[in-house]
Here is the input.
Amino acid sequence: MITRIGVQPIIVAGSPAAGRQSYVVTSMDGEIEVASPNSVTCTNDLSLAGNMNVVHWDGSEAPFRVYKAVEGTYGFIGETNDKRLIDANILPDISKQPPSA
Here is the structure.
């Protein structure tokens, strides 16, 4: 279960106002994928080299899956056993969406 989710934008070039990203993280409860109770949002221009968002969370049931919103629809961007994922402009796969809360 995910108990906390956060995001830290890393801005190397440009300004943070160029793009807005929202993330949801899921964990496994047995065989069931469970979404974080809320999403987290930040502003960063991920199209610029060096800019990235570090999505981080507290949770105990790995693997964790991370989803990013594109035009209001969340799509899969990665799976990890760590409690963070770096988004350096990963294109979401909207054919894979998080479970409904």
In short: Strands lie at 2-10, 20-29, 32-35, 40-43, 52-59, 64-70, 73-80, 84-87.
